[in-house]
Amino acid sequence: MDYKEYFKGKKITIMGLGLLGRGLGDAIFLAECGAELIITDLREKKVLKPSLEKLKKFKNIKYTLGKHDLKDFEFRDFILKAAGIPLDSEFIIHARKNKIPIEMDASLFSRIAQGVITIGITGTRGKTTVTSLIYKILSDAYKKKSQKVYLAGNIRDTATLPLIKKVKKGDIVVMELDSWQLQGFGDSKISPHISVFTNLMEDHLNYYKGSLEKYLEDKAQIFLHQKQNDYLITGEKVAHLITAKYHDKLNNLLLTANSSEIPLDWKLPLIGEHNKENIALALKVARIMKISDSISKKSIENFKSVEGRLQKIKSYKGITIWNDNNSTTPEAAIAALNSFPQNKNIVLIAGGNDKNIDTAKLVIEISKTCKAIVLIPGTGTDRLKNIENSVKVKNLKEAVKKALSFCTKGDVLLFSPAFSSFSQFKNEYERNDMFMKLIKSLK
Q: pLDDT tens, 189-209?
């Protein structure tokens, strides 16, 4: 397919430009293809300035900023919807009434990229680590072959659609897919050739209006449209949910991955039982792809923690400092706390915006494992305020300073928020970058 001809002259509304680079990358790609674009975003021009600066050379883009306008959702060839925009948005509903298709970048890419092998990874926790592990193993295995391996999906600063310019038949694309991106796969009635479903926990219940079942329905799009000879790989716990709800809709044998499948003599680079499960999932994919265990072993043992995912940053005056910024749910924070010896020597920095998820188990775990907890502002923070040895601060900078004052040699300083970032930050990446900057500045 000639991708330029496919998009040339098409009237496309991009709903959600954002600042993470994905919407921007899609906009640049479509503008270069000669599409007639309308970009609409609820954020004001001054907020979007970094993205808008990179688009100013294009004359085939019009903008509606600080609001959405129903007119932008009429007489268009399709709407390219950013992740996180609800399907019951009045503007999406208006477009559907006008028979206008709703697309998302990862699913649109998967539909029109011909002859490409797609590997999709979803789950509440672990999907970034599993995606990165699979990508490393495959990149190492294929580095001397004609086939190329690409990373795509829910990756910071990476738009998926522009990969159409690079990929060729037989190439492999490893995609991290959140529940929102999988809405696009559901609309397109497609699923990746190899699908990995790590786990299912309570998350985004504010978006899904308290319904874990609706959350699962979006996640399930990763396998519901698979064909014969495709593969579905899951963690053991989520396998029971899938077989109970979708047993009559599975087109393939469901394969489960267990940490017991990892050879005992391998030196694993990541701490925590949850990371053993992540490694097992990646290894299962490698074996399906007929990659030798010797290559997988070397790749896994040389793997570095993904930034913000239980990542050891440094030792400082005998204190080990860990960044688990992407822990945005209570269960994720519990997994982090349980990754360390139970010596009650953890000083935890937590807090942020509420997702309407029960925190009772987290409160118990903090009481068992932490010598102190420092709370940053947010609508969810007050749910942790009555914990013994807890203190509230005004911002992350003050939190780091206060947490260090509680630490002594041999302690662990753990940043594992358990809530989303939107109380004080534009997104979780801004929160991550702030924490990394504060820790790296310590002398």
A: 999 999 999 999 887 777 777
Phi and psi dihedrals of 384, rounded to 5?
A: -115, 0
311-440 under CATH 3.30.499.10, yes or no: no
Residue type, position 310, single letter: L
Pick the CATH number of 107-301 from 3.40.1190.10, 3.90.45.10, 3.90.76.10, 3.40.50.300: 3.40.1190.10
Where are the chain's structural domains?
8-103, 107-301, 311-440
Q: Where are the alpha helices (DSSP H) in 343-411?
A: 360-369, 396-406
Whole-number Å distance between alpha carbons of 249 and 243: 9
Residue 1 has what pLDDT? 67
Query: Which pTM value belongs to this model?
Result: 0.91
Whole-angstrom distance, CA of residue 2 vs CA of residue 47 = 35
Mean pLDDT of the chain: 93
DSSP 32-70: HTT-EEEEEESS-TTTTHHHHHTTTT-SSEEEEESS--G
